[in-house]
Every structure is written in structure tokens, then in C-alpha cells.
TrEMBL record:
Belongs to the acyl-CoA dehydrogenase family. One of its GO terms (cellular component) is mitochondrion. Its cofactor is FAD. Residues 311-458 form the Acyl-CoA dehydrogenase/oxidase C-terminal domain. InterPro entries: Acyl-CoA_dehydrogenase, Acyl-CoA_DH_CS, Acyl-CoA_Oxase/DH_mid-dom, Acyl-CoA_Oxase/DH_mid-dom_sf, AcylCo_DH-like_C, AcylCo_DH/oxidase_C, AcylCoA_DH/ox_N, AcylCoA_DH/ox_N_sf. The keyword Transcription does not apply. Residues 82-197 form the Acyl-CoA dehydrogenase/oxidase N-terminal domain. Keywords: FAD, Flavoprotein, Oxidoreductase. Residues 202-299 form the Acyl-CoA oxidase/dehydrogenase middle domain. This is Acyl-CoA dehydrogenase. GO terms for biological process: carnitine metabolic process, CoA-linked; fatty acid beta-oxidation using acyl-CoA dehydrogenase; long-chain fatty acid catabolic process. The lineage of its organism: Eukaryota, Sar, Alveolata, Ciliophora, Intramacronucleata.
Amino acid sequence: KQPPLPLRPSTPALLMLRLASSRSAALGAAATRTQQPMSIRLVRVARAHSTQAVDEDEVAPVRPEISQAANMMDIGTRRIFNEEHDAFRETCRKFYAEHIVPHSGAGGEWETQQHISREAWLKAGEYGLLGINCPEKYGGLGASILEAAISWEECMYAEGSPSGPGFALHSDICIPYILHYGTEAQKEQWIPGMCDGSTIGAIAMTEPGAGSDLQGLRTTAIKQEDGTYVLNGSKTYITNGWMSDLVIVVAKTNPEAKGSAAMSLFLVDPKLAGFSKGNPLKKAGLKAQDTCELFFEDVVLPPDALLGDEGRGFAYLMEELPQERLIIAVDTQARAENAFETTRAWCNDRVAFGKPLIAKQTVAHKLAEMKTAICINRAFVDQCLMLHHEGRLDTATASMAKMSSTDLAWKICDDAVQLHGGMGFMWETSVARQLADTRVHRIYGGANEIMKELIARTCKTA
Ligand SMILES: Cc1cc2nc3c(=O)[nH]c(=O)nc-3n(C[C@H](O)[C@H](O)[C@H](O)COP(=O)(O)OP(=O)(O)OC[C@H]3O[C@@H](n4cnc5c(N)ncnc54)[C@H](O)[C@@H]3O)c2cc1C
């Protein structure tokens, strides 16, 4: 019998959600928001075109889309959100500004040590920002995927889009595997610690010889007569790997079997004998992220380390990948918006040939092109978020969002560096780090060439 779950503390995020559900509190908070004048203006326009009498109290303010906002990252925008979401976003913004940004700059503490601190994980847990989309019963916030998406975005909206925190992978990739395929005992054993930040999660699929083609995995977990499994092999490029307290490992349980039937998932405790971690890898970007190699040498896994059914690992991965791709799409879209706003401000301030850069038509037109591309992609990403919220996001659509957003972010960050001139090439400049950090998004979570394969399947007629 499992011990009872610890009582859920009232986190700042939970308190904000509850506070915001009170209509008066939400309206009071909204009065201070920067977009209010724009919203009110748009309501007036909507009313002027309406033939029906309108009850003042019943009209919700019309929310501007990002193309209409003073700043794309303003709170109070986008039709998919409401005032409760805005209050939650304020909490996230405060958390990142106070607890993440001060450690995240160029040459800062986290970049130098190549990982963030345990305190930051615990603080995120204290704020209720780990397991936002996970039921309260297991220590999560019990909120929807939209609140989770707000937290992903706010990390990217923070100054310089900090690269260290692997919170989204932990909360919205690792936890769902346990929630969807774990036993009640596994959920109670692992998830509360993941929600309070004391247990850091990672997922290990990729190996030195197999990334895009997971059928080529060589790590094995062979079942013994006593029901245990013996794990051998290695993994590489594992996000959160160096700090991990729990790793979801993909291994072949039946190496003779053809295709997907060979693979299973395991919940592996890195403290087990025979499990070792490499040092965080030196990367071309995401320098504060503890990506590393993992090695397994005759690691004895208890029978209850198996996640779900033996031989179903590949099917589980395919089920969960759309959410992983949506996270990457949301992250990179938000990063592009952040880089654009930094560049817009720079072009208005920086003087060359006696005038601000934006006085040059070529510069102004470049900004116009950037803004248009970002706004178009934002509409699609928000559509995908709503599809996922409604349980209707399919693999091909998620792949389109992943591919288009990662290509967009790369292009926008490159343009941003160009418009910053020499300053744009300096590591201390946020757009330089954003360009470096966003390069990998076209590779991981499935390379964009693989995304095209998945999308192309929907283009063929029967
Ligand atoms: C910073 C970072 C973090 C990562 N985090 C994790 C993690 O947490 N967990 C994890 O398991 N993995 C992780 N990865 C691994 C990542 O998912 C893989 O690198 C990615 O899937 C590509 O696999 P690969 O590197 O083996 O490249 P390969 O599979 O060798 O492919 C190389 C290139 O070939 C091309 N290509 C491959 N297949 C095709 C095809 N069918 N058609 C056309 N072109 C193709 C693509 O351009 C691809 O980029 C991470 C990687 C990085 C760099």
C-alpha cells in the first residue's frame, strides 16, 4: 500500500487562478493592463457595427491579436485567452523575472556551470509552475494545456529567452507519460516530487547511433527469471540529463522482434548501481541547459520500473510526440516575438546617418516583413493550441506547427542579428544568444525533414 500523498500546498499560481476566477478581482486586475485602452477601443468599434442593443455588463472586452498590440508580448492579447489567463501569465512573468533572468545572462552563473540550480527547480514548484496540466491529486495545478502554454511562452518572453530551464520537457513531456501509461503506484511514487521540483525528469530516446530512426536503438532491457530487467547501453543529448532524478528510458526488451514491438519504456532511477552520467555537453547554444550522455552497465531494474505494457514503447512515443512538437512550436514562436520586439526597439533607437535606423525604408520594410511572418504563424500556432485543448491535434498538424515555427524563429533571429549590426554578433546581446539557441529546434523533437515526411503522408490521395 502506498503512503498517502502529501497535502497540496497553495502555490502562488494556484492562488492567482482562484483569485482570477472571482469576476471582480479579474476585472480589477485588468484595469491596470497595458492593452486595456486598445481593448476598449475595439469594443467600441464592435458596438458601432452592431445592430443589437448591448448590455454594458455582458460585453467582454475584445482582445487584440498580436498584430494589433503595442508589443507582441503584452498581457491581455489573443482571442484564445481570457482575463484568468492574464492573471496567471502575470504570475509566470514575475517568476521568470525574479528567479530565472538574474542567473541567465551571458557568462552568468548557469551558463558557466552548464546547468540551472536546484533552488530554481524548487522555486518553480513552489510557484505551481511544474505540472500545471497535471491533476491536483498528484500535486499538479489541475489547469488546462492553455495555462501550461502560457508558462512555456513566458520562459521565452523573459529577457534573452533563458535557455537553462527544462521545465516544459519535465512537466509536459515526462509527466504525461507517467500519467497516461503508469500504474497508480508509479504515479504516486514519482509525480508529486516532479510537481514540487524535488524530482527532475528527463526522457532518453536518442543514442549515438540512432536519433531520427529509433528502430536502430541498441540499448536493451532484458527480462530475468525473477521479473527484473537488466539494462545495458547508452543515450546521448539528453535534456535535463545531468540533473535528472528520474529518466524515462526507451530500450529494446525483445531485440529479436521486428519493428516497433521490440521497444518498451522504463522509469529509471539514476541512483541505481551501473547508471552513470557524462558531464554536460559543450553545445553551440542552450548553454545553461544540462544536456548530457547517460550510460547503463548491467543496471538491474525492478519489475515495476516498466512503464505501461512491454513491447508498446514505440506506440506510446508516437502518441505523445504531437504535444512535444506543439511545445517546440509554441516556444519558438514566442522566441521569435521576443527577438522581434528587441529588434524593433533597437531600430527605433539606434542612430545611423543622422536618423534612427527605422527611417531607412529597407530597414522599416524588413521589420514589416518580420512582423507579418510572425503574426501569420501566431494565428496557426494558436489554432493548434486550441485543437490540442479540445483533444483534436493530430500528428501532421503538430508537425506543421513545429516545422513552420522553428524555421520562422531561425529566420527572425537571423534578421534580428543582422539589424543589430556588430552588436548583434556579441554574445552579451540577447538576439545573438537567441539565434544560437534556436538553431537546434529545427533538429530536435524530430528533424524538420522528418516533419515533412509526416505531413507529406496527408498529401497523398488513396
Ligand atoms: C540540445 C539537444 C537536446 C536534445 N534532447 C533530447 C532529449 O531530451 N531526449 C532525446 O531522446 N533526444 C534528445 N535530443 C536528440 C534529438 O532528438 C536528435 O538529435 C534528433 O532526433 C536527430 O537525431 P540525430 O541527431 O541522430 O540525427 P540523424 O538521425 O543522424 O539525422 C541527421 C540529419 O539527417 C537528416 N535526416 C534524418 N532522417 C531523415 C529522413 N528520413 N529524411 C530526410 N532527412 C533526414 C536530417 O537533416 C537530420 O537532422 C536532443 C538533441 C539536442 C541537440
